[in-house]
Specification:
By secondary structure, the chain is an alpha/beta fold. It has ten helices and seven strands. Helix 3 packs across helix 6, helix 4 packs across helix 7 and helix 7 packs parallel to helix 10. The chain is elongated, with a radius of gyration of 26 Å. The chain binds a DNA duplex through helix 5, helix 7, strand 4 and helix 8.
Length: 295
DNA sequence: CGCAATCACGGGATTCGTTA
DNA sequence: TAACGAATCCCGTGATTGCG
């Protein structure tokens, strides 16, 4: 990044974007959020660069490097670039701390796949103008690609974690008398979701909550959610059974979780890690407790 | 009392399943 | 198929708690 002024706040040399300048009735948009903290951000940037130079002085080399000079790019060119090369959108957005939600809120463009966008040319124009108002004067190309890489890795990790719930549900179907499937039920006007339940329709007989708790500080929140959901389920389906399958990497604290989940409404609490073996063991144990007379 | 550690909370991100 | 809502993870901030 550049030590010089950022284009957004410096000279307004870049195209302004109408959507960002409309009155918002006191509610902020991304530009306003940024503007508010800009002085602090610029001060920090100067200090960070200074410290980096001092800290790494002996290891800093000067090399020739490709730089993308955003301040020379007209909005129409940027729009065309995005249309012709959709892959470039994500790194540009990420470099500005912008994401799909901001585009939706500020530009009223819904459901952009920021990784592989398919935009109309009108949308590309809007996004280009919007981006240019946030982009710095220039960014080194490898830095930009690195930013994309970080975002991509983060996304893929989330995707992988999302598969864990499916593995547990598949194990329930393999070893239990399902079919187990995600389903909803209503209690007191509110709708609740069970990650795995059987049967798919009619009165719930078995409801399972499948949860990952990866940070210690989330334990209260997650346990409260489980206890609440169990109570709601039992309030509606008095004869049903409720169980929880939990991923919690602090094994020595599993008894804590179990005791927090002690409730007449919860019939089983089991733990599993990412391995197929622990999932199988947990699911078998849980099924033994909630299936009872079935079969 | 002052400082450090911990807690609670909320905002922002992405993914997935459901629904219109 | 597009849009939406639920769920989960990450992070920073301010409040609270605990210790010397």
């Amino acid at each position: 990044m550049t030590p010089e002024k950022n284009s957004l706040f410096g000279g307004e040399t870049t195209p302004t974007n109408d959507a960002l300048n409309e009155p918002t009735g006191g509610y902020g948009n991304q530009r306003q959020y940024v503007s508010k903290v800009l002085p602090a951000a610029e001060m920090r940037q100067r200090e960070v660069e200074k410290e980096l130079r001092h800290a790494f002085g002996r290891y800093i080399e000067t090399r020739q490097i490709e730089v993308i000079v955003f301040e020379r790019i007209p909005a129409t060119d940027l729009a065309r670039a995005i249309l012709n090369h959709p892959l470039i959108l994500k790194p540009l957005l990420a470099a500005c701390n912008l994401a799909g939600r901001a585009l939706k809120r500020d530009l009223k463009i819904d459901n952009i796949d920021t990784y592989e966008p398919t935009l109309t040319s009108a949308q590309a124009n809007a996004v280009a103008g919007y981006l240019l108002s946030f982009l710095p004067q220039y960014i080194e190309l490898p830095a930009l690609s690195r930013i994309d890489r970080v975002s991509f890795i983060d996304k893929e990790i989330r995707k992988d974690k999302g598969r864990w719930e499916k593995l547990v549900c598949e194990a329930l179907n393999l070893y239990g008398h399902g079919p187990f499937k995600k389903r909803k039920f209503e209690a007191g006007g509110q709708v609740f979701e069970l990650d795995a339940a059987t049967p798919a329709k009619g009165d719930v007989q078995i409801g399972i909550d499948i949860k990952r708790i990866e940070a210690r500080q989330d334990i209260h929140k997650r346990c409260d959610e489980i206890v609440n959901k169990a109570a709601k389920l039992k309030a509606v389906f008095r004869k049903s059974k409720f169980g929880a399958v939990i991923y919690y990497p602090f094994i020595q604290e599993h008894p804590n979780v179990t005791s927090r989940l002690t409730s007449p409404n919860i019939d089983a609490v089991v733990f599993a890690s990412g391995s197929a073996e622990t999932i199988e063991n947990a699911v078998r144990l849980l099924l033994a407790k909630v299936e009872g007379r079935k079969l």
